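Lecture 7, part B: from sequences to assemblies.

Below are the input chains for today's worked example.
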Amino acid sequence: MKARIVIDRELCKECHLCVQVCKKSLIRTTTELNSKGYHPVACMENEDCTGCTLCAISCPEVAIEVYRER
Amino acid sequence: MKKVFSRPRSLKSTPFHYCAGCGHSIIHRVICEVIDELGIRGNTIGVPPAGCAVVAYNYFDVDMLEAPHGRGCAVATGIKRTLPDRVVFSYQGDGDLAAIGTAETFHAANRGENITVLFINNAVYGMTGGQMAPTTLLGQTSTTSPPGRNAILDGHPIRMSEILANLEGTAYIERVAVNSAQNILRAKKAVKKAFQYQIDGAGFNMIEVLSQCPTNWKMNTVDACRWVDEVMSKTFPIGVIKDTGKGRKDAD
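Predicted structure of the full complex, as structure tokens:
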């Protein structure tokens, strides 16, 4: 795994800007609820994330942290 | 693995009260990233406005002094003249800066006060429920212009950046947007340059940010971001409006 993102599901307000911006379509919508009543997004567990940080840059709630090798 | 993106240190961990997809929260983060990068956290004083961002002091981990509605530039002037070694920025919306506070903004710019103004333009009055603002586009519907803004009845949208660029006192004015990752990165560069110009004593500088307001535009977040590109930036073109080059060359 080259990179991964961590989404804070309590901060997510389901604006779905990260879903749109991910070039690899790795962020998906969910039907779970967080304590504010939003359906937070989740990241698919696989090897494709490159750690480009586009999702984190677009996230208005600063709910995404990005980790990358090197 | 190394952490390559996380919450800037100057941004408190308080969750934002803004609506989903709001541009304010993105701009808050961008300003905090710039404050961190320039290492001016202990040296910065912000002036929050009246409007949606009225409680901006809950989010910025820097000193802040709330201004009465529209008087951000006047308050920032006072702070800067008393404490000239501090970096002072005023954060104002379009109702705040272009309507009730036009006089304060105009004269602060004309005097060339060495402050930075972040002008958040979302083309409506956000907090009070989406009424028509001075910056509302022609034909745009709002709660007080249901058939769309009419130039004969309501006048034309005000381009504050272009107006202020004509004044001698202004050093740097740029219009940016935060509707895409690319534009957010450009906005960050512009904000950093504006702060650097202030540190270098260049004079009045302002960054106008076209900010999406999905709630009052009655759109989903993705359509709102597209609307900024396709409609709003036709009336408010993105780009550098004035750059006197008085700041250091490495500000770029």
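Note for the exam: The interface with chain A takes residues 1-7, 11, 15-16, 18-26, 29, 180-181, 184-185, 214, 221-222, 225 of chain B (CB under 8 Å). Keep this in mind when comparing with the next example.
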